[in-house]
Amino acid sequence: MKRIRFSTTQIILLSFLLVILIGSILLVLPISSTNGTPVPYIDALFTATTSCCVTGLVTLPTLSTWSVFGQIVILILIQVGGLGVITVMTGCMLLLNRKLGIGDRLLIQDSFNLNTMSGLVRFVKNVLFGTLIVEGIGAVLYMLVFVPEFGAKGIWISVFNSVSAFCNAGIDIVADNSLCNYATNPLINTVTSVLVILGGLGYIVWWDIIRVIKSRSPKNRKIFRHLTLHSKIAVTVTAGLILAGAIFIFVFEYANPLTIGEMKLFDKIQVSFFQSVTTRTAGFASVPQENLTNASAVVSVILMMIGGSPVGTAGGMKTVTITVLICSAFATIRNKNSSSLFGRRISDDSVKKAVAVVVMFFAICVGSMILILSTSNASVIDAVYETVSATATVGLSRNLTATLNAFGKLIIIATMFFGRVGPISLAVALGRKNESQNVISEPTEDISIG
Prior knowledge:
By secondary structure, the protein is mostly helical.
């Protein structure tokens, strides 16, 4: 009997599936609901998927539906999904003093999409330790607001919100309207935004910035100049998108009485900034998304599609991916053989991967949107918002999720899963391996483009 061998990418895909299934079984238990009545399995599966895929779309209100046990299950799923199943498994192995074999190291390398196998154990330890520190600080800062308001329960709310924000999950147990009650609270806005941005920047950027800071002398603190190309792109594009998004949303919503039109100037600025940050796959809402103007909704969709940066907790096509494609396009327009940025040439392999990610992303998103429109009475803008949010694992919705029928929920479940696993990982996992490499390549022929 021939032994079935799975590639590392297929193992990662299957591990996410297994965690989701286990989570759905736990959530369908009577102990998981507030009233002791089991929720429908489709909703338990949806909640397990949105938690593990750190998306945030929900068919049932998190606060009023799930008991403390159910909330603990959801939080564990969020943490495992944000860090990655392989990372958590590796952490457990390290705690048990088990040595990592070559197969384990390959899994870690593929789960983080790293280009090298050196220093993987140290990298995983840094990821786990760094995550614990950041989430812990976030929880303590949240307690300054939630403990005075909710008492001892505020400690649990703070921990839950901190983990959810850092993992870009967008699920909270503060209220059934997300963070709308705290839209003008500077501390909640700031802490949530910082956690979201740190999670979305990616661990590679963290360690690169720390490396440069440690290596610089007090007289030479030009940190940005010594960062890697990846970090430079991630930092600059993230800052640029957040700032541009905030400005556009501020302008488009300035006179909208349903969002920020009745607020003071400072509150308008901070709500606009928060909306720009949360669309980067965080999913927390400080204003009802269905009340946004069409212009702001389009801006939000664009920000959701781009998402965060690679090797982090955010989703989307990623900042680096889009930057590589834009640079390649401009290089082609200028008849240059290769594209470059910050004085460094971008490899052709990076361009090919970027094209593959974008093509798969749009294939998943468009397919999901067509199916949603065919099975519901949703408007086009609501369907686009929902499917982009699911594919990019954002979690923002214009009140469409709860109205979906069973088939619509299954569509969004599949969309969230494929969006989290990653378009390029999905393509590799489902694609056949070539058993033999062609020695002689096919003949080349020019075709008309554009």
